[in-house]
Design goal:
GO terms for molecular function: oxidoreductase activity. This is Enoyl reductase (ER) domain-containing protein. It holds the Pfam family ADH_N. About 25% of the residues lie in helices and about 25% in strands. By secondary structure, the protein is α/β, with parallel strands linked by helices. The strands form 3 sheets. Strands 3, 4, 5, 6, 7, 14 and 15 form a 7-stranded mixed sheet that branches. It has a 6-stranded parallel sheet with strand order 10-9-8-11-12-13. Helix 3 (about 130-145) crosses helix 4. It binds NADP nicotinamide-adenine-dinucleotide phosphate. NADP nicotinamide-adenine-dinucleotide phosphate binds near residues 134, 185, 187 and 315.
Length: about 325
Amino acid sequence: MAPARMRAVQYDGYGEGAAGLKDVQVPVPSAKKNELLLKLEAASINPVDWKMQKGMLRPLLPRRLPYIPVTDVAGVVVDVGSGVDGFQAGDEVVAMLNPFSGGGFAEYAVASVKLTVKRPPGVSAAEGAGLPIAAGTALQSLRSIGAKLDGTGKPLNVLVTAASGGVGLYAVQLAKLAGLHVTATCGARNMELVRSLGADEVLDYKTAEGASMRSPSGRKYDGVVHCTVGVGWSTFEPLLSATGKLVDITASLSAFLRAALHWVTFARKRLVPLLLWPNKADLEFLVGLVKDGKLKTVVDSRFPLSEASKAWEKSIDGHATGKIIVEMEG
Ligand SMILES: NC(=O)c1ccc[n+]([C@@H]2O[C@H](COP(=O)([O-])OP(=O)(O)OC[C@H]3O[C@@H](n4cnc5c(N)ncnc54)[C@H](OP(=O)(O)O)[C@@H]3O)[C@@H](O)[C@H]2O)c1
């Protein structure tokens, strides 16, 4: 049985960063039709969480203030709403909460069955909570380049930029599972880690060679999973193979316009802006890879819920290696 009230961390205005996060006591939500009430064990922060607080997704997200941020969670089912099939109290799960209502920085949250999957023994809460947005985006980016995760695809050459970040570290590992040749960029301190997760070539983005992003072995890229900002199409275009795709997960308005131009002109080399399409099948697939020891969640740091603002600050700082995890102690 869930208590009537719970601890949570929320913000009630835009643009205050970590200082805008407040510890509060709020009513425990209840599971409605096709929903599960979860006792949360861990949540992982994605940059979109604090971008929402900055007002960058206004007026779409958040839908209303105050808002309990963060969508990517792992926990245990404590109650099921009507119409729920296949879940029961006590099930350990991974879920992506509805970003319109948020809720991850709390002791309890309500998740839709459509974006909740069971977490097998051996997959920790932190490993699971890291997956929904970051690994989901990495997977869908690679698929849009033509990667086949069952290993039946062509041995494409890919570049992963910001390979030490939340998305990048999953992208490197998934690309290797798909049998691709991976060139990666990251800072000097993370080169060994990125190599150890399978990257064939690693470039320090702070050197001239790294900034050029050219493959040391002279390969042209069939695809780029671009996970950082500040590098335009004109830099990537000469690095792409004849039909290479630049998958931009941080696309600006001008990138969207260029993508539209490529589309209407049937360009062979293309810019493809990518927005994650959250879905249960991908989440199940990713959790399965973690269970089988084929995919790792690299945890940058862990904070208790009482120090969620420190975790928030660290994510805003932009230098995480892997995922920043907030744990709901007690
Ligand atoms: N379109 C979508 O659906 C979608 C989904 C998920 C994420 N995103 C966006 O994708 C971006 C990346 O997300 P994330 O979760 O991976 O971020 P993150 O974990 O915060 O990325 C931090 C990492 O990026 C590295 N980095 C920063 N600038 C770099 C550069 N110029 N070259 C190489 N490495 C660099 C940092 O290395 P150092 O510490 O060494 O600097 C750090 O390890 C964010 O803007 C996010 O909003 C979009």
